[in-house]
Structure formats: structure tokens, C-alpha cells
């Protein structure tokens, strides 16, 4: 494999935390030992890692939720079981401003993933950390036992440069995500990491940016498809984040734009569309 993980980090995560930079230098060959030895596997792993960590700038999950953030969590259905109504969820923002999220995480992560009830503050202690945001006391204990590192007793070791890749790669392997990557199945990869499809659009964009770099192709931003999507977004057509893939949302935006401009109806990227958009 030509391009290495540390080259992806240098290209796409210029503000990465030093510990992550050191970890992805991978002197022990942990990525290869986990079977991440092909361009496709590396692209999928790095796309998930960069998404989960905000381009390797996030070591530990932040609990400083604003009222807007908490409202979004309620609206997405994530925290309905923990609050009687939306107003109670949003009101937690005042407490987050005081304690940084201790009460919030103790509540929403309590009594699950091996965590004790809220009064133990396990939900706070074992909140998301590291390359793939290891979460929950069970995961810290399980990965610690496999790595012979006391992650349960010392959770911050999950983001130590010497260990940061270890729990992430164990999770990757346990979910058989090399096979999903081989099939270029980003939804299965995301389900394995996230348990759902939260942030799917952003994960697709990370992959679409990283993949050409790894295989030595032109950058995503040079593709006609990406330029068309960007022009449509700029024109007020909300198709999501440009990713260079003409999917259902992009096709609907193209049809709407064509109708507004009096162009022949077609969901495809064609020369008349490119010309009209000034791409």
C-alpha cells in the first residue's frame, strides 16, 4: 500500500492532537496487524476516525452542550427516554455550562454499556474517548483486558499515543469491518462504529476526500459532480454536503433546478446543466 495512515493525517488533519499524530505514525505496525493493508480498508478506517474525532482534534467527548445542541438531540430521538419532554432536555444546558456535562452524561449513559446508575458518574467517566470514541465501562474493561492496559482504571490511557489505535482496531476487527470496507459498504462500516447512521453524510464526504488521495486520483473538489453539487447548494438547493456522488438528493436538486431554469427534465449531470450552473 503506497499511502500510509500518517500521510492521510498530514493531509486531512493538519490540526490533529500530537498524541494522535504519534499514534498514526504506527511504529508497532498495529494497522497492518489488524488487516488494514489495502487502500480501500485504510480509506474507510480513516474516514470513520476523522469523523469521530473532528479531524483528530477531539480526545474526549465534550459535554458542553448548548440549548440548541440538546434540542437537536431531542429532535433526533436520541434522548427521549431520559427526559420527560423537550423542554426538560433543553434545560439541561444550564447544568452543562456549570459542570461541563457531568450530570448529563451520568444520566444518559448511566445504567447501560456496563455503567452504573447516574450517582456513580460512570457515564461521565466512561464517555467517548479516542480514535473511534470508545464509550461505556464494558468497552473500557474489555479492550483493556485485550490490550493488557488498564483502560477501566485509567480511562485517559485510551487517548495516550502508545495505546490510541489499540481499542479502535479491536472494535474494527470485532465488527468484521475489513469485510465491509472490501465491499465499499460505508453504511455497514458506520453501523459497526456508530450503532446507527448518525453523521452519515459527513462520513461519506470524508471517504470521498480521502479515497482519491490514497489511490493517487484527482481530488474530490476537481470532479464535475462535486462542482455541480456545490453550485446547486450555492444556488439554494439543499442536497446535503457535496460528496461527488450523484445520489437521490442530488438528482432531486438537479430536477428542481432544471425546472426553475426551463431546462429539459433529466436527473443527470449533462453539459447543459454544467453550462447553466457556470461550472
From TrEMBL:
<dbReference type="InterPro" id="IPR036365">
    <property type="entry name" value="PGBD-like_sf"/>
</dbReference>
<dbReference type="InterPro" id="IPR052354">
    <property type="entry name" value="Cell_Wall_Dynamics_Protein"/>
</dbReference>
<dbReference type="InterPro" id="IPR023346">
    <property type="entry name" value="Lysozyme-like_dom_sf"/>
</dbReference>
<protein>
    <recommendedName>
        <fullName>Peptidoglycan binding-like domain-containing protein</fullName>
    </recommendedName>
</protein>
<dbReference type="InterPro" id="IPR036366">
    <property type="entry name" value="PGBDSf"/>
</dbReference>
Amino acid at each position: 500500500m503506497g499511502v500510509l495512515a500518517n500521510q492521510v493525517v498530514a493531509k486531512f488533519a493538519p490540526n490533529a492532537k500530537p498524541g494522535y499524530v504519534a499514534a498514526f505514525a504506527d511504529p508497532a505496525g498495529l494497522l497492518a496487524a489488524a488487516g488494514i493493508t489495502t487502500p480501500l480498508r485504510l480509506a474507510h478506517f480513516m474516514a470513520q476516525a476523522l469523523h469521530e474525532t473532528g479531524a483528530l482534534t477531539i480526545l474526549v467527548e465534550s459535554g458542553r452542550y448548548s440549548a440548541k445542541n440538546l434540542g437537536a438531540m431531542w429532535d433526533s430521538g436520541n434522548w427521549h427516554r431520559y427526559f420527560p419532554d423537550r423542554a426538560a432536555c433543553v434545560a439541561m444546558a444550564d447544568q452543562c455550562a456549570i459542570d461541563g456535562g457531568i450530570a448529563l452524561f451520568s444520566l444518559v449513559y448511566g445504567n447501560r454499556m456496563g455503567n452504573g446508575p447516574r450517582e456513580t458518574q460512570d457515564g461521565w467517566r466512561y464517555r467517548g474517548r479516542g480514535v473511534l470514541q470508545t464509550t461505556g465501562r464494558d468497552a473500557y474493561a474489555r479492550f483493556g483486558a485485550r490490550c493488557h492496559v488498564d483502560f477501566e482504571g485509567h480511562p485517559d490511557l485510551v487517548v495516550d499515543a502508545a495505546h490510541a489505535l489499540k481499542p479502535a482496531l479491536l472494535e474494527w476487527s470485532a465488527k468484521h469491518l475489513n469485510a465491509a470496507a472490501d465491499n465499499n459498504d460505508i453504511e455497514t462500516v458506520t453501523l459497526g462504529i456508530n450503532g446507527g447512521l448518525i453523521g452519515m453524510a459527513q462520513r461519506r464526504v470524508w471517504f470521498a476526500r480521502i479515497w482519491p488521495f490514497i489511490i493517487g486520483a484527482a481530488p474530490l473538489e476537481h470532479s464535475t459532480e462535486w462542482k455541480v453539487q456545490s453550485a446547486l447548494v450555492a444556488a439554494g438547493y439543499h442536497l446535503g454536503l457535496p460528496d461527488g456522488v450523484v445520489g437521490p438528493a442530488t438528482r432531486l436538486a438537479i430536477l428542481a433546478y432544471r425546472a426553475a431554469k426551463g431546462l429539459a427534465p433529466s436527473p443527470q449531470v449533462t453539459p447543459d446543466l454544467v453550462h447553466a450552473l457556470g461550472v
